[in-house]
Amino acid sequence: MRKGILYVVSGPSGAGKGTVIKEFLPRHPDWFYSISATTRAPRPGEENGVHYYFMEKEEFLRLRENDGFLESAEFCGNHYGTPKAAVMERLEAGKDVLLEIEVQGAMQVMESYPEGIFIFIVPPTMEELRHRLEGRKTEEPSVVEKRLERAKEELRLADKYTYIVVNDSADRAAEEIEAIALAEEGRSARKFDFVKENLL
Amino acid sequence: MRKGILYVVSGPSGAGKGTVIKEFLPRHPDWFYSISATTRAPRPGEENGVHYYFMEKEEFLRLRENDGFLESAEFCGNHYGTPKAAVMERLEAGKDVLLEIEVQGAMQVMESYPEGIFIFIVPPTMEELRHRLEGRKTEEPSVVEKRLERAKEELRLADKYTYIVVNDSADRAAEEIEAIALAEEGRSARKFDFVKENLL
Q1: Distance CA B71, CA B67 (A)
Q2: Architecture of domain B6-198
Q3: Are residues B187 and A123, on separate chains, in Cβ contact within 8 Å?
Q4: In sequence order, which residues have a C-beta less than 8 Å from that of residue B42 and are 6 or more positions away?
């Protein structure tokens, strides 16, 4: 049976990963959108299994020790990670899986699951990235500068990915991801099974 | 400057390469559609530079000796081939190039230009392929059987290609090639130049 494909969507903060995915996902209700696990406390309105899988720290660390994450990281004393089992089950069942993660996490998945398709979302210009980061308003100017610096560092890693998608408009970028998914479906390594089963 | 991409569309006789390309080409007037050279005499209505480049045998053989073809073959005493210079000039000028050739020719281009994108067009079923070959009417039953045998042999080579496209409908298959072209455009090996020039 056809195995599912793991798509990892990543990119610097402010590139618009979330917006692009919000355009893309409703067109693919059959895909499995993987949710992160975290040890941080739920914020008001956040539901377990919808926004995050909320976990106790001991549980998280035990799972991590048992190689139970595709990737994991620690921010401000809280742990975040992508539980491996849920993703692997879907892939084995032939479902395509979409993962939205930070650049460092994506680099870990390249190690743990190199068969994945890695898509790097970039802003059209650095001015636009600054504009988007400033637009969040919640951030102090010094935080914006730090994020821009970090974005530049992360952009240098773009060539490690399979594809680079410029997010000049979320709709257009989502269409590009659709084209990528359609093309990847037809890669001969995958489609040769069709030839063997139906034509030989 | 961005270099053009060479797309080689191939597949067994009767798979419908020509029909798919007729759907695809008008949507991409900027692409260069490469025409074969041949030593056979023009048939009524065939124009030099439109259907083929008609060449004298000596001229063809001299060009072939000087490594002037991306691929070449001999059928029934006539020579056919894809002149290299016209294709290379377009690629260097940043134009995408489309080449429609037989399977043996495509295998030669894989050797001479491995950076190409190789698309293999297959029929949805062998019954459909037989139906299409019989529909040509001009063929004797024994010729149809021979072509089916040859198609089976060629289908075994499908995994050497980059992509496999099932031609269940020419329109849908052309859309799949469009998706492939859009995806290939975004391959990080190509798109990283955009990142370097605009964001770093």
Answers
A1: 9
A2: 3-Layer(aba) Sandwich (3.40)
A3: no
A4: B48, B51, B52, B54
Residues of A in contact with B160 (CB under 8 A): 188
| B158 at interface of A, judged by CB pairs closer than 8 A | yes
Quick: pLDDT tens for A4-63.
999 999 999 999 999 999 999 999 999 999 999 999 999 999 999 988 999 999 999 999
Do B166 and B128 meet the contact criterion of CB atoms below 8 Å apart?
no
Contacts with A181 (C-beta within 8 Å, 6 or more apart), sequence order: A5, A7, A28, A96
Read off the pTM.
0.93
| 3-state DSSP helix/strand/coil % of chain A, to nearest 5 | 45, 20, 30
A200 Cβ under 8 Å from any chain B Cβ: yes
pLDDT in tens, B137-191: 767 888 889 999 999 999 999 999 999 999 999 999 999 999 999 999 999 999 9
Strand partners, B166: B122
Nearest-10 Cα torsion for B53, B58, B60, B65: -160
Q: Which residues pair with B191 in a beta bridge?
A: none
Q: Do B184 and A188 touch (CB under 8 A)?
A: no
Mean pLDDT, to the nearest integer, of A167-171?
96
Instruction: Give ipTM to 2 decimals.
Output: 0.92
What torsion, rounded to 10 degrees, do the Cα atoms B176, B181, B183, B186 define?
A: -170
User: In terms of DSSP bridges, do strands A78-83 and A37-38 run parallel, antiparallel, or are they unpaired?
Assistant: antiparallel
- Identity of the amino acid at A182: L
In chain A, the residue whose alpha carbon lies closest to the alpha carbon of B193 is A159
**Strand ranges of the sheet holding A117-122, from the earlier edge strand across to the other edge:** A32-33, A97-100, A6-10, A117-122, A163-166
d(CA A36, CA A84): 10
Distance from CA of A190 to the nearest CA of B (A): 9
- Does the domain at A6-34+95-198 match CATH 3.40.190.290? Answer given as no
The dihedrals phi and psi of B128, each to the nearest 5 degrees, come to -65, -40
DSSP secondary structure code for residue B124 in this structure? S
Judge: B188–A161 Cβ closer than 8 Å, yes or no.
yes
Q: Is B126's CB within 8 Å of A199's CB?
A: yes
